[in-house]
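The following record pairs a protein chain with its ligand, flavin-adenine dinucleotide.
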Amino acid sequence: MTRIVIIGGGPAGYEAALVAAQLGAQVTVIERDGMGGASVLTDCVPSKALIASAEAMTAVRDSKVLGVQGAEPAGVGLDLVSVNHRVKGLAMAQSADIHARLESEGVRIVKGSGRLADDVPGLAAHEVEILDADGRVVDEIEGDVVLIATGADPRVLPGSEPDHERILDWRDVYDLEEMPEHLVVVGSGVTGAEFASGYLEAGVPVTLVSSRDRVLPGEDADAAEVLEEVFQSRGGRITQKGRAAAVRRTEKGVLVELTDGRTVEGSHALMTVGTVPNTAGLNLESHGVQVTEAGHVVVDRVSRTTVPGIYAAGDVTGVFQLASVAAMQGRIAMWHALGEAVAPIRLKTVAANVFTHPEIATVGVQEKSLADDADIDVVRLPLATNARAKMSDLRAGFVKLFTRRSTGVVVGGVVVAPGASELVLPITLAVTKGLTAADLANTFSIYPSLSGSITEAGRRLMGVDELS
Ligand SMILES: Cc1cc2nc3c(=O)[nH]c(=O)nc-3n(C[C@H](O)[C@H](O)[C@H](O)COP(=O)(O)OP(=O)(O)OC[C@H]3O[C@@H](n4cnc5c(N)ncnc54)[C@H](O)[C@@H]3O)c2cc1C
Ligand SMILES: NC(=O)c1ccc[n+]([C@@H]2O[C@H](COP(=O)([O-])OP(=O)(O)OC[C@H]3O[C@@H](n4cnc5c(N)ncnc54)[C@H](O)[C@@H]3O)[C@@H](O)[C@H]2O)c1
């Protein structure tokens, strides 16, 4: 029986464990915190649960235009203590469900930190030491295959170290007992944009310190522009081209000093300036496992590292930091290691969503990476023209579709709308299965529905041939 040792119990680790157990391997998962990893306990799941409460606030406040009475902004508020209580409880419950599921599949779960400990490099099997919370080695186990799935932690900006009271990282926010009077979010990547949007919706004045001239530099530029407009129309402030040099505590709160001399004051600062992979202390380099300058483990498309028998998956690899990608990399690693037929990961088919208001969902090729003479047709349909959107008073947002001009095959798309994370699925399916604009156009969508804009985009891009 193949012995699999997995270090880290996030989506990369636990999904890998499920696949390996299903294929009859003997599986051990070493996890220092709790099953589900940072994704479930502190990052993805809690943030989306918090955002769900903020969205409920928005739905109530925005209902006046639909004729609802008594929902004036001053009369609607969030009870942050009970929201945080709910968020943490939900994360713990999800973690417990994953723990129970793994145990029911026969996976052994060990609490502690794992690290590679081969005495002799190059052997077919690998030793892994288990350390307790005090750093003492308490056990050693041998695996035929080791999966490194240790995730990533918040990056700390020197001079802006979180004190976890006023200067926070995103894992601290669920311990707040009162709403911040004025939250300064430093960093406008996906994490920063989501928290800035969520807290603003929850009724907190927010300033977003963005180091670029546009928030969400990695996303579709039109989508980022819509998000900025909505954010500012609701009273959010954006400090553009503002790179934080230091964040200090003041008598009343915090002062964010920017590299160009400007300052931003607030009651709390939330640091969202990226992540660092958890590779320290794993003995990777001494075992010949190649890591990049930034510390990410180098893997190929079937999750192999540079050492036979050692695989890596998830945020520790730096390949698209998404729970869905982490899980797929973990599964692929096990299929490959256990001799199953396996297709290398296809990053062009990955769908991603920014959970702001409105949400931004993307899949496949994106406009910013297209050459001027690319063989690509693009259509952009504003939501404002969609009947269902009008009924719900949704004005901001759009559907954008990219097809290959020569074949009509759908190669990418962007949806900016409330619930874009759900709406993007037909486009993702089209990109994954090589469907054409005509396939979308000839698919029945419900009338009236927001997904009608996706089939309509297909019709706009249909070639003349398909009409004849
Ligand atoms: C605020 C936030 C919101 C996000 N929201 C989303 C979202 O909505 N959708 C999405 O797809 N992605 C989201 N992400 C990204 C997603 O959380 C990550 O891509 C995902 O957690 C990666 O999973 P992983 O298994 O690689 O690592 P993790 O989930 O980080 O799990 C790794 C685990 O390994 C443990 N570990 C580390 N070192 C050791 C060791 N030596 N021994 C034992 N255990 C160890 C860690 O404690 C951790 O529990 C979000 C990220 C952030 C920061
Ligand atoms: N919904 C989701 O799927 C979701 C949600 C959150 C995070 N994530 C993923 O997690 C990963 C990490 O996201 P992130 O947003 O934490 O990191 P990031 O690296 O994507 O963004 C960090 C931002 O901070 C900025 N920054 C860095 N130093 C700064 C400074 N001194 N002052 C001001 N700004 C500064 C950077 O320019 C960058 O725009 C990403 O890959 C992201 O996709 C996914």
